[in-house]
Amino acid sequence: MTTVRALADLEGEPHANAFPDDEPKTIRLTLAEGESVPSHTHPGRDIVFYLIEGAIELQLDEETHEVAAGDIARFEGEREISPRALEDSVALIVLAPRSTE
Predict the structure, then answer these.
(1) Domain parsing of the chain, residue ranges
(2) pLDDT confidence of residue 21
(3) Which CATH superfamily is domain 11-97 in?
(4) What pLDDT, in 10s, does the model give residues 9-33?
């Protein structure tokens, strides 16, 4: 079965779940300039963070990465993550369950 959703049609901010109850968890993150998400983790998952528009300061543990529109980052969910928008920003985040093999 194929499901197609338009990111602009998703409800909820700053987080909108593209495919509720399905894996991998796929989230549209919308942040206004200066807005941030408190530090948190996603244990047992691998994360792909794709910035569609804007600019984000992505805090991962003690590292800070400036992510620009079109950039993609991949990291383990055990890391402490806290994104902060340097300008109005939209990202697509995929949280895939880590294989136990």
Answers:
(1) 11-97
(2) 87
(3) Jelly Rolls (2.60.120.10)
(4) 998 889 999 998 899 999 999 999 9
